[in-house]
Design goal:
Layout lengths: L1 E10 L2 E8 L3 H5 L2 E6 L5 H13 L1 E2 L3 E2 L14 E10 L2 E12 L1 E2 L3 E6 L4 E5 L1 H12 L3 H7 L1 E2 L2 H8 L2 H12 L2 H29 L6 H61 L1 H15 L1 H124 L6 H75 L4 H72 L1 H18 L16 H4 L7 H63 L8 H91 L10 H75 L4 H67 L5 H7 L3 H39 L6 H63 L5 H26 L3 E5 L7 E5 L5 E4 L5 H20 L6 E4 L8 H12 L7 E5 L3 H6 L3 E7 L3 E5 L3 E3 L1
Parallel strand pairs: 3-16, 3-17, 11-15, 15-16
Antiparallel strand pairs: 1-2, 1-6, 2-19, 4-5, 6-7, 7-8, 7-9, 9-10, 12-13, 13-14, 17-18
Length: 1216
């Protein structure tokens, strides 16, 4: 397989569409190329795109689906990846793409045949299956063959056995062998446990005898007849009870309705007051416009009076403020004079204080310098004293340690003799060790042979027992087969089984057609109900539409009246609005001066005193303007509702049509079924016919099932009989073979006993030699302890004795050095003490001078800061000047405001007099209207006023109560009519409801007892049938499980283990050998120096044969960085060969961590990769290292840009 071209769009940081063409001439001339760029720029995204196009998933993110796509670039609506590749079967192009419209859409995939220009497959799973077929590689094989993970082999070389086994299992996928081994172990264990449980369950079952079963059936039939009679009596009683109860409920309901009627009549009487109030309110609405106009004039007068009072109060306040400002100006002038005098006195003192502060500051710096010098010297003195104490302690400690060491050397002086005796002692101990190993081997052989002898003896006895058992089982099986043949004849009643099966097939074929008819029957019933619902809904929608149309007509009429009023009064409203807008302007006009609006110097309206504006008319006109908009909105809303009702009516009609169509469809289906089964199906008795057919099917199925069980048992017993005969012959042959082996083992045990006694004598001789050596060096110790430990103990004691002698010499040298160091430290101490005394004298002089200056400073300006004092004086002067200026401006403004306010007060007083005259006229007219409409006074009129909502509410309340009275009368009449019908139905019956209820309860109790007895008997019979069936099933299951367990026992002996190690180790050893073979083939092409071989001592471990060192075998742990890389690369290529099987791989991508290699190792690694050119492979290296960039000329660079985006630059790269 070879990758020819990659085309991708909006994958991670690679925004927009990109193409990389590996057929470009530069890739052909240089088959090794580099994919480079900064970390995180998107180098690995190119590999993700290849994997995504081929298999729909990536090594880093797994499968990409509708719910999860972290590959798509942010803020984009689509992404895709397309790979053109070549195999031995042809040239193909595979595409993966996904879009986002608000949410992610399911991914789409296509596979194209490029040469024939046609689509081979579409669909996620079908494309993946076809890609696997064309490439010959699954996703896992592809990632191990094309995208080589060499880092796994680097860790493989350095790992121990367990880690190496786990890594090999992970890389090669051999974990299946562990799972199989564990599964075999678990299955065998489970099967054994299940078999034991089933046998216990079989022992616990109890089945009824045929006589007991017949008695129970007879009792059940008797109770069923009693139940039928009791049911009929109970139905009659229920009917009488329900009718009587309904009669009583209706009588109670009539009583309640009559009470409600009395209540509503009383409420209607109480509402007479509300009627009178409603009439009064309507009279009040007639003269309400005059009242509103009068009220408006009263409000205007109150507003003018309040405005006048406010203006007069404001004028008094302004006068008072002017007097206060005048006094304040005088006080500010006085303050400024006092400040000038104070400033002349303080100036010289501030200058003097500033000079003293500078002197103090200079001396304080000198004081700090000497203080630091004293502290540093004192610290150095403390350090010297500490070092002196430490040195004295070391000297005393060293002298004590020397005394202890000399004592130890004197006590162990005899250990010097061990120097020559240790080699001889080691030689004797090794000879004894060899004798002990030989002795243990003989012991193991004796034990093994003894066990083998015992086992064979026991096996021969067991085989004789098995032979007798098998002979007995053979006779039992022959008897069972005869019995089963008789059971079959009895079951079939001498009929042919083929006839019974034919009848069973006929009944079973008929069943689904009956079930289909039942389903269609239920569907027809549901459709009829739905049609009735649609009819009711149609009538309701029609009524609602008519109501809405009537309401729309009413609203349109109201709108027409309002529009007529607005059109008739439009001119009048505009005149009043214009007068109202210019009313305030007219008040400021003066004769002879131009108007600011029109420019005229003559103002006739200004001279007219009584220009009246009808404010109530303006308000009424504005209300109608608002009302017209509201009516338009209401009409639009009602029209919308009518449209909705029409849509609902159309939908209702369409739904009904669909239901009728569905009904006809169901009837046609039933007709088709009748034609197929060739007889008429009566829907009325369909359930009974289905039940009858099911019973016949169950009976026939039971006969066939029992026949098959018996037939299978006969076949199984015949097979077991043949097997038993074979076992009997095998047992006889096994007994003869094992008896011969037993005689051979007894002879071998006798020879081993003689050799064992000879070895014991040799061991005693060597132990005597060791005792002589120990006595020679003056060491008394028993030989009871292990000899190796004795040798190591003596060796250790001798080495410790030598170490103590060396330590003694070191301590002597250290003692002399510490004594010299002590003498030097004492001289340094005297020098530092003299230095501290000199610094202290200078410090004291400076401190005294600073104290004198501070006393003089306090007398001059106490502790005040001269700069702050000057700043404060400057601020006071500025504040006084600003305060004076602000007060003068305020005084001038207040005088202007008071003059303007006096003018406004005069204008308001004049306007008030005009309104008071108009108010008197309006009030007189309103009082005349009150008398005309029978209102005693204004208060009586205001109390009679009601809003439109209140009038509507009272009217609605009165109408509702009238309607409620009519409804109650109708309900009472209807209930009485129902009672008469019930009495006609039940006739004359003297029994009361309580008496009927007692009879009913008695009958229910009786029926309950009968049904309990039926249920109890049915439960016993059902339980017995289940027990019989369970008994037979358990027998069959035990036989099946015993057969199955025998298979698992064989498998367990071969490959089973609890940890999976048994089969896994075997499989891994084979895989390991294959891997070495493939790796050496690739290693030979890279370098002829090394050959990989299997380590003879450790499992799953490599060694390397170095041909440049005369074929020396080296451990992989001793390889340099470059050598490790070459071996790792060969292993990775070997794995690629294993994973790709018979598929040719012509494209490789190495994503190894080159950044961990030094320059020399990196050079070796690149030379090794260059040698792969001989195989005509296109190899891509992913790295950001500068050295690799210099070595590999053909490069694809991924360059990051702002905003998390990257671009691709290089040969064969193009952007769309």
């Amino acid at each position: 397989m070879k990758i020819l071209k990659i085309r991708l769009k909006n994958i991670n940081s690679l925004y927009n569409e990109w193409t990389i063409d590996f057929t470009h001439p530069e890739f052909i001339s240089n088959s090794i190329f580099l994919i480079t760029g900064q970390t995180g720029a998107g180098k690995s995204t190119i590999l993700d795109a290849i994997s995504l196009a081929l298999y729909g998933k990536t090594p880093r993110l797994g499968k990409i689906s509708r719910n999860n796509n972290e590959l798509m670039s942010r803020n984009t609506n689509e992404c895709f990846s397309e790979v053109t590749f070549e195999t031995q079967k042809g040239l193909y192009k595979v595409l993966w793409f996904q879009k986002r419209t608000r949410e992610l859409q399911p991914p789409q995939r296509e596979l194209h045949d490029v040469k024939n220009n046609k689509i081979i497959e579409t669909g996620i799973n079908k494309v993946e299956e076809k890609v696997i077929e064309l490439t010959g590689m699954t996703y896992d094989q592809f990632t191990r063959s094309i995208l080589l993970a060499q880092g796994d082999f680097a860790s493989f070389l350095k790992a121990n056995y367990d880690e190496r086994s786990a890594i090999l299992e992970q890389i090669t996928g051999t974990q299946i062998y562990s799972e199989i081994s564990i599964m075999v172990y678990e299955k065998r264990k489970t099967e054994r446990e299940q078999l034991g449980l089933i046998k216990k369950e079989l022992e616990a079952l109890r089945v009824l005898s045929p006589e007991e079963e017949r008695d129970l059936i007879f009792q059940q039939n008797s109770y069923i007849m009693q139940e039928k009679i009791c049911d009929e009596e109970l139905a009659q009683l229920n009917e009488r009870f329900n009718a009587k109860k309904k009669e009583k409920d209706l009588e109670i309901e009539i009583e309640q309705l009559e009470r409600d009627l009395l209540d509503i009549n009383q409420k209607l009487s109480d509402c007479e007051i509300k009627k009178l109030r409603l009439e009064k309110a309507k009279e009040a609405r007639i003269i309400y416009p005059e009242y509103k106009e009068l009220k408006s004039l009263e409000d205007s007068l109150q507003d003018i009076s309040r405005s006048l009072e406010n203006k007069e109060a404001k004028e008094k306040g302004l006068s008072k403020n002017l007097e206060d400002l005048k006094k304040r100006l005088e006080k500010i002038m006085q303050k400024m004079q006092k400040f000038a005098e104070k400033k002349e006195k303080i100036g010289p003192l501030i200058n003097e204080a500033r000079t003293i502060d500078l002197n103090i500051q200079s001396l304080s710096k000198q004081e700090e310098i000497y203080k630091k010098l004293i502290n540093d010297a004192s610290k150095k003195k403390r350090e010297i004293l500490s070092q002196i104490d430490l040195t004295k302690y070391k000297i005393e400690s060293t002298k004590g340690r020397i005394r202890e060491i000399n004592k130890t050397l004197l006590e162990n002086s005899h250990l010097e003799k061990l120097k020559d005796s240790l080699p001889e002692l080691k030689s004797f101990i090794e000879m004894i060790k060899d004798l002990e190993e030989r002795f243990l081997d003989i012991e193991k052989n004796l034990s093994s042979k003894g066990k083998e002898e015992t086992k064979l003896t026991l096996d021969v006895q067991i085989e004789y027992e098995k032979l007798a058992q098998r002979t007995k089982e053979k006779e039992g099986l022959e008897s069972e087969i005869t019995s089963l043949q008789k059971d079959i004849e009895s079951l079939l009643s001498y009929k042919d089984i083929n006839e019974i099966k034919k009848e069973f097939d006929s009944k079973r074929t008929k069943k689904p057609y009956l079930e289909m008819c039942k389903s269609e029957k239920e569907r027809l019933e549901k459709i009829d109900l739905d049609i009735k619902e649609r009819d009711k809904e149609f009538e309701s929608l029609k009524l609602e539409k008519e109501r809405l149309e009537e309401e729309r007509k009413q609203k349109e009429h109201e709108k027409k009246l309002v529009e007529e009023f607005l059109e008739a009064n439009k001119k009048k409203f505009e005149e009043f609005s214009l007068l109202k807008n210019f009313e305030r302007t007219r008040e400021i006009l003066e004769e002879g001066k131009p108007c600011p609006v029109c420019g005229s110097t003559h103002h006739p309206y200004k001279q007219r005193e009584n220009i009246l504006i009808d404010y109530s008319f303006i308000e009424k006109y504005n209300n109608n303007l608002e009302n017209i908009e509201k009516l338009k909105n209401d009409i639009l809303e009602i029209s919308t509702k009518i449209s909705l009702q029409e849509n609902k009516l159309q939908n209702n009609f369409a739904q009904k049509e669909r239901l009728l169509s569905a009904k006809n469809e169901s009837l046609n289906k039933i007709q088709e079924i009748e034609n197929k089964v060739n007889y008429h199906i009566d829907l009325a008795v369909l359930d009974i016919e289905i039940e009858k057919n099911d019973i016949e099917i169950n009976n026939l199925a039971s006969i066939i099932e029992r026949y098959e069980v018996l037939e299978n048992n006969i076949n199984k017993k015949n097979k077991e009989l043949v097997s038993l005969k074979e076992d009997i012959n095998s047992l006889k042959e096994a007994i003869n073979s094992k008896e011969q082996k037993l005689n051979i083992i007894k002879a071998e045990i006798s020879n081993l006993q003689a050799t064992k006694e000879e070895l014991i004598d040799q061991k005693h001789s060597q132990e005597n030699n060791i005792s002589c050596i120990l006595q020679k060096v003056g060491i008394e110790t028993a030989l009871s302890k292990e000899l190796n430990i004795l040798y190591l103990d003596l060796k250790k004691r001798y080495e410790e004795f030598l170490k103590v002698k060396e330590i003694n010499i070191k301590y002597q040298l250290n003692l002399g050095n510490e004594e010299k160091n002590l003498e030097k430290l004492q001289f340094d101490l005297k020098d530092i003490e003299e230095e501290i005394r000199n610094y202290q004298e200078e410090f004291n002089k400076i401190t005294s001078e600073i104290r004198n200056l501070k006393e003089k400073r306090y007398k001059t300006l106490r502790n005040y800061d001269p700069d702050l004092c000057e700043k404060r004086l400057r601020e006071i002067r500025e504040n006084l000047e600003k305060e004076l200026q602000d007060s003068q401006i305020a005084f001038s403004n207040l005088e202007k405001d008071r003059s303007f306010l006096n003018g406004e007060i005069e204008n308001i007083k004049k306007k008030k007099y005009d309104l008071e005259d108009l108010y008197k006229l309006k009030k007189s007219k309103f009082e005349s209207l009150l008398r005309k409409h029978n209102f005693t006074d204004r208060t009586n009129f205001e109390e009679s006023l009601l809003s439109d909502e209140e009038i509507a509410l009272i009217s609605k309340e009165l109408e509702a109560k009238e309607l409620e009275r009519e409804v109650l009368n109708s309900k009472i009449f209807e209930r009485k009519r129902k009672i008469e019908k019930i009495r006609e139905l039940i006739g004359e019956n003297s029994q009361t409801l309580e008496e009927i209820n007692k009879d009913l309860e008695f009958q229910k109790e009786k029926l309950k007892n009968i049904r309990e007895n039926i249920g109890m008997l049915k439960q016993k019979l059902t339980a017995n049938n289940e027990t019989k069936e369970q008994y037979n099933n358990l027998i069959q299951e035990i036989e099946m499980r015993e057969k199955n367990l025998k298979k698992y026992d064989i498998l367990y002996d071969l490959i089973g283990s609890s940890d999976g190690k048994k089969f896994r180790s075997f499989a891994q050893e084979i895989t390991f050998d294959i891997l070495i073979k493939h790796a050496n083939r690739h290693l030979k092409r890279i370098s002829d120096r090394y050959i990989l071989t299997k380590d003879k001592k450790e499992k799953l471990c490599f060694s390397v044969i170095d041909n440049y060192q005369a074929g020396e075998i080296r451990s992989t742990k001793n390889l340099s960085g470059g050598e490790s890389f070459i071996v790792s690369l060969a292993l990775a290529l070997g794995l690629s060969s294993m994973s790709s099987k018979n598929v040719r791989v012509d494209s490789l991508f190495l994503d190894e961590g080159f950044g961990t290699l030094d320059e020399e190792t990196l050079e070796t690694a690149l030379d090794a990769i260059s040698n792969l050119n001989q195989e005509n492979k296109t190899i891509g290296i992913i790295s950001h290292l500068t050295y690799i960039q210099e070595r590999v000329p053909t490069q694809i660079r991924v360059i990051p840009k702002p905003g998390g985006k990257s671009i691709i630059v290089g040969p064969g790269v193009s952007r769309y």
